From TrEMBL:
InterPro entries: UbiA_prenyltransferase (IPR000537), UbiA_sf (IPR044878), UBIAD1 (IPR026046). GO terms for cellular component: membrane. The chain crosses the membrane at residues 28-45, 51-70, 98-116, 122-141, 153-174, 194-216, 245-269. One of its GO terms (molecular function) is prenyltransferase activity. It comes from Lactobacillus acetotolerans. This is Prenyltransferase, ubia family.
C-alpha cells in the first residue's frame, strides 16, 4: 500500500502536529521543578548535565507522542479514525517517513543518555532504561501498554517521577542519592534512602497530575478506543469510577505538598499552590459533568461561529496552573 499510494511531503507544521508540540511545555515542567528543588535542597546545579538532559528529554517527549501517532495509525481498525482523526491520515503523510523521523529522535536521546551515564554514574540506567523501554513499548509490541489498564500508572511514574528524579540526580552530589559501581565480577549499590524518599515525595504532584491527564484522555476516548481494540483503564473500572479517580488524583496533589512543607522538605512558599484550588475544583466539576475532546462550535444569528472548548483541556490546564505555582514557590524559597 505504501509503495503505490502518494503521500504529501512532511512539512515542519506537519511535524509539530505529529508530535503535538503545543503540549510539550508540560513535560518540561518536572525538569524545571527538579532543577529548582535541587538548588534549594542540595544547593547544587550542573549546567552541562542539565543542558544534555534537556535535549535528551525533549527528544524523548517528541518521540513518544509521534511514535504513538504512527502506531495508532497502523493499529487502527476504524478507517474513519485513520482518515479523519489521526494526523498521518488527515495530512496524507507517509507512515514510513514518520517512523524514520521518530526513530532518529530516539537515537539522539539514547546517545545523550549514554553521555550522561559517563558523566555521572551507572545508577542512572536503572531509571533511564526502563523509561526508554516504556516509551517504545507503550504503543509497540504484541500487547502495547497503551491498550492496557496500566497507561496511567506508567505515565505517572515515568513522566512524573522519572523526569524529576533524573533531573535531581544529574545535578545533586550522586553520593547523597545513590551509586552503582562495577569491579568485575563484583558490584556494589549504595544509596541514601532518606534522600530517595524525599525525591519521591516531591515528585508526587507530577506523578498524580500526569496520571490524571492520561486518565482524562482515555475517558474521553473510551468509545473510540473500544472500537479500535484498546482496553484502557476506564473500560475496566467504568466512567463513574474514572471520574472519581480523576478528582482524587487532582486534589491529592495538595496533600503531598502540604506534607512536604510540614517536613521542611519544601519551602513554606510552596503553599501558594492553594491559590489554584478553587480553579481546579471548578475544572474537576466541569470535566465530571461532561467529557469532550473534539472541538465543537455553534453559529449565532449573524452566522458567526463560536468555538466551544473541550473539557479534556481542563486536565492539562490543571497541571500547568499547579506547576506554575510550584515553580514560583521554589524560586521564592531560594531567594528569601
Amino acid at each position: 500500500m505504501e509503495r503505490t499510494q502518494k503521500y504529501n511531503r512532511m512539512t515542519l507544521t506537519d511535524f509539530f502536529e505529529l508530535v503535538r508540540l503545543n503540549t510539550k511545555l508540560n513535560s518540561l515542567m518536572p525538569y524545571l521543578i527538579g532543577i529548582l528543588f535541587t538548588y534549594y535542597f542540595f544547593h547544587t546545579f550542573n549546567w552541562q548535565n542539565s543542558l544534555i538532559y534537556l535535549v535528551a528529554q525533549g527528544a524523548i517527549a517528541l518521540f513518544v507522542t509521534g511514535f504513538n501517532n504512527v502506531q495508532d495509525y497502523r493499529l487502527a481498525k476504524s478507517n474513519d479514525f485513520k482518515k479523519n482523526h489521526n494526523v498521518i491520515g488527515k495530512n496524507k503523510l507517509s507512515p514510513r517517513t514518520a517512523m524514520a523521523v521518530m526513530l532518529s529522535l530516539l537515537l539522539i536521546a539514547s546517545i545523550l543518555g549514554i553521555w550522561l551515564t559517563v558523566r555521572t554514574n551507572w545508577f542512572i540506567l536503572l531509571i533511564g532504561i526502563p523509561g526508554l523501554l516504556t516509551s517504545v513499548f507503550y504503543t509497540y509490541g504484541p500487547v502495547p501498554f497503551s491498550r492496557t489498564p496500566i497507561g496511567e500508572l506508567l505515565a505517572g511514574l515515568f513522566e512524573g517521577f522519572g523526569i524529576t528524579f533524573l533531573t535531581v540526580y544529574i545535578n545533586a552530589p550522586i553520593k547523597e542519592i545513590a551509586t552503582l559501581n562495577f569491579n568485575w565480577p563484583a558490584f556494589s549499590l549504595n544509596g541514601n534512602l532518606q534522600n530517595l524518599l524525599i525525591i519521591f515525595l516531591i515528585s508526587l504532584p507530577e506523578v498524580f497530575f500526569n496520571a490524571a491527564t492520561m486518565l482524562a484522555d482515555n475517558t474521553c476516548d473510551l468509545k473510540a478506543d473500544l472500537q479500535n481494540g484498546r482496553h484502557t483503564l476506564p473500560s475496566y473500572i467504568g466512567v463513574k469510577n474514572s471520574l472519581r479517580l480523576f478528582a482524587y488524583l487532582t486534589l491529592g496533589t495538595y496533600v503531598t505538598v502540604t506534607i512536604a512543607v510540614i517536613l521542611r522538605i519544601l519551602p513554606i512558599w510552596q503553599l501558594l499552590v492553594f491559590i489554584t484550588l478553587p480553579k481546579l475544583i471548578k475544572n474537576v466539576k466541569a470535566f465530571n459533568a461532561k467529557q469532550t475532546k473534539d472541538m465543537t462550535f455553534w453559529v449565532d444569528k449573524n452566522n458567526k461561529k463560536h468555538h466551544i472548548p473541550t473539557t479534556f483541556d481542563l486536565a492539562p490546564q490543571n497541571l500547568s496552573l499547579f506547576q506554575a505555582m510550584q515553580v514560583i514557590g521554589l524560586i521564592l524559597g531560594i531567594l528569601i
